[in-house]
UniProtKB/TrEMBL annotation:
GO terms for molecular function: oxidoreductase activity. CDD domains: MDR1. Signal peptide: none annotated. It comes from Turneriella parva (strain ATCC BAA-1111 / DSM 21527 / NCTC 11395 / H). Pfam families: ADH_N (PF08240), ADH_zinc_N_2 (PF13602). This is Alcohol dehydrogenase zinc-binding domain protein. Residues 10-315 form the Enoyl reductase (ER) domain. It comes from the Bacteria.
Length: 317
C-alpha cells in the first residue's frame, strides 16, 4: 500500500510503498478514505515538544508512518472482534499516533473508534476528530450553563472553530477573536460578537466573562484575568511560558476567586461519542480549509505547521 513515511524525527516526509497491515484477532482493518494533518500530527511527526517522545518513541518514532486520525471503511475484522463488521464506515483518533496516513490502517476495536453518522462524508468525519476532541475537552472541564458568557480566543483554528459550535449548541453566548478574512465565518459558526484580532486587542474590551477559552494558546491568564467575572475560569490549549498554565491549574484552585484549568485530553472515546451526536444532529459541521492528496502530504504538513490554517486540513486517499 502507499503510505506517508519517515524513519527518524529529523527525516523529510516521503510517500512510498510499504507492506499492508494485517488485522490481529482484536483488530479491524480499515481502508482509509480520509485523514487530516493537524497540530498533534506535527508534534508526533517531529518529536517536538520533546515530551511527545515519551509516548511516540524516545530516539526514533515507533511507527515510521505518521497519522493520528482516520475515516474509512472496515474491510476485514479479526476473529475476536465483536463491535464492528465488514463494510461499516468508521472514524477514530489516537493522539499518540495510529500510522493512519496510509491507504490502510489496523486498529484494535478497543481504541477510540466509532461508526460515522449517516450523511457525514469521510473528509468531514476525519475533520471532526483531533481539534473537536480538544475543544470538547475544554467544555467538559467546566460547568457552563445556557446564557453564560464565554470568550474564545482563536476561533478560526481547528479547536476554536469546533468550540464555538459546541458552545452555541449549549446556548452559551460567545464572543470570539478572528482574523479579517474569517469574521463572517466565525459569526456563522455561532459567535454573537467577533473581534478582529488584527486591528483590536481583545483584552481591552469592557465585557466580562464566566470563561475565557484561549483555543489558540497565544495569550496568558495574566493578560486575561481582568476579563473574568469573580469566579471565572481561564483555560488555554498551550502550557504557556514556563509551563505556567499546568502550574497555575494546581495552585489557583487553592485560592478564592478566578482559576486556571489545564485541559489534559484523556478520554477520547467520550469526546467521539459527544462529537458523533452533534454531527448526527447537524449541530456541528467541521470547518475544512484545504484538501490534499496523499502524494502532497509534505506540503500539507508545511501549511499546518505555519499556524495559518482555518479549521482543518484533510488528506483524501
Ligand atoms: N494541549 C494539547 O494537547 C494540544 C493539542 C493540539 C493542539 N494544541 C495547540 O493548540 C493550539 C491551537 O491548535 P489549532 O489546531 O486549533 O490551531 P490552528 O488551527 O493551527 O490555528 C490557526 C488559526 O489561529 C489563528 N491565530 C493565530 N494567532 C492568533 C492570535 N494571536 N489570536 C487569535 N487567533 C490567532 C490563525 O490566524 P492567522 O492565520 O491570521 O494568524 C489561524 O486561523 C496550537 O497552539 C496547538 O499547538 C494543543
Amino acid at each position: 500500500m502507499k503510505a506517508a513515511y519517515r524513519e527518524h524525527y529529523r527525516d523529510a516526509l516521503t510517500v512510498r510503498e510499504v507492506a499492508q497491515p494485517v488485522a490481529h484477532p482484536d483488530e479491524i482493518l480499515v481502508r482509509v478514505h480520509a485523514t487530516t494533518v493537524n497540530r498533534t500530527d506535527c508534534a508526533v511527526m517531529t518529536g517536538k515538544p520533546f515530551i511527545m517522545r515519551f509516548f511516540t518513541g524516545l530516539m526514533k518514532p515507533r511507527s515510521p508512518i505518521p497519522g493520528t486520525d482516520f475515516a474509512g471503511e472496515v474491510v476485514a475484522v479479526g476473529d475476536k472482534v465483536s463491535l464492528f463488521k465488514k463494510g461499516q464506515r468508521v472514524f477514530g483518533f489516537n493522539d499518540q499516533g495510529l500510522g493512519s496516513q496510509a491507504e490502510y490502517v489496523a486498529v484494535s476495536e478497543q481504541q477510540a473508534v466509532a461508526e460515522i453518522p449517516q450523511n457525514v462524508s469521510y473528509p468531514q468525519a476525519a475533520a471532526s476528530l483531533e481539534a473537536a476532541h480538544y475543544a470538547y475537552n475544554f467544555l467538559s472541564k467546566v460547568k457552563h450553563t445556557a446564557g453564560a458568557q464565554v470568550l474564545v480566543n482563536g476561533a478560526t483554528g481547528g479547536i476554536g472553530s469546533a468550540m464555538v459550535q459546541f458552545l452555541r449548541h449549549a446556548g452559551v453566548r460567545v464572543t470570539a477573536t478572528a482574523n479579517t478574512k474569517n469574521l463572517a465565518l466565525v459569526k456563522q459558526l455561532g459567535a454573537e460578537r467577533v473581534i478582529n484580532f488584527e486591528i483590536e486587542d481583545f483584552t481591552r474590551i469592557e465585557d466580562r466573562f464566566e470563561f475565557v477559552f484561549d483555543a489558540v494558546g497565544k495569550s496568558t491568564f495574566c493578560k486575561c484575568r481582568h476579563l473574568l467575572k469573580p469566579k471565572g475560569v481561564y483555560i488555554s490549549s498551550e502550557p504557556g511560558p514556563w509551563l505556567q498554565n499546568p502550574l497555575l491549574a494546581l495552585f489557583t484552585p487553592l485560592l478564592p476567586g478566578k482559576t486556571v484549568k489545564f485541559p489534559l485530553p484523556l478520554d477520547i472515546k467520550r469526546s467521539i461519542k459527544f462529537i458523533s451526536e452533534l454531527l448526527a444532529s447537524g449541530a456541528f459541521k467541521p470547518v475544512i480549509d484545504r484538501t490534499y492528496a496523499l502524494d502532497q502530504i509534505a506540503e500539507a504538513y508545511t501549511y499546518v505547521a505555519s499556524g495559518a490554517k482555518t479549521g482543518n486540513v484533510v488528506i483524501e486517499i
